[in-house]
Amino acid sequence: MDAATIAGLLADPARLKVVAALALGAGTIEQVSAASGLSLKDVALAARRLARAGLVHRDGHDLALHTERFGAAARAAAESAPPPEPLSSDPAEDAVLSAFVRDGRLVSIPAQRGKRRVVLQHLVRIFEPGVRYPEREVNALLAVWHPDVAALRRYLVDEGLLTREAGVYWRSGGYVDV
């Protein structure tokens, strides 16, 4: 069974409630009904569909969830997923960025200056050269990346990637994509 099939089965609210109740320890149709707030009929229909798909073992009123199938489907999906796009053409930079950037967000600010510099050089690209930004706009742009905007702002200025004067910032360093 693949992850997409499981996701499709769990897209139905009744089936999702049945699976949740079973995962939390319910073992009969009656227990699932009590735990989920569904009628016995709705539980029986959902359990029948889940059993046909192989996620639930049904023996009369007794139900058992095949939890191992969820893990197997997740592992198969992870193995068949395409590798992530590199964040830099330089393998060393890409290794650093891959460690600290997930889904377009900075998961943490590197403590090591060299790694932090790589991340900041990647991050400064959100600022257009020649454009002046008020601090509020800088904060808004940086908040998309990480909640500690004050630290990011300070690091960008300290590294010479942004310049600040009278509460206005502009890009003053880093590589510019041409």
From TrEMBL:
InterPro entries: DUF2087, WH-like_DNA-bd_sf, WH_DNA-bd_sf. It comes from the Bacteria. Transmembrane segments: none annotated. Residues 105-171 form the DUF2087 domain. Pfam families: DUF2087. Gene3D superfamilies: Winged helix-like DNA-binding domain superfamily/Winged helix DNA-binding domain. This is DUF2087 domain-containing protein. The lineage of its organism: Bacteria, Bacillati, Actinomycetota, Actinomycetes, Geodermatophilales.
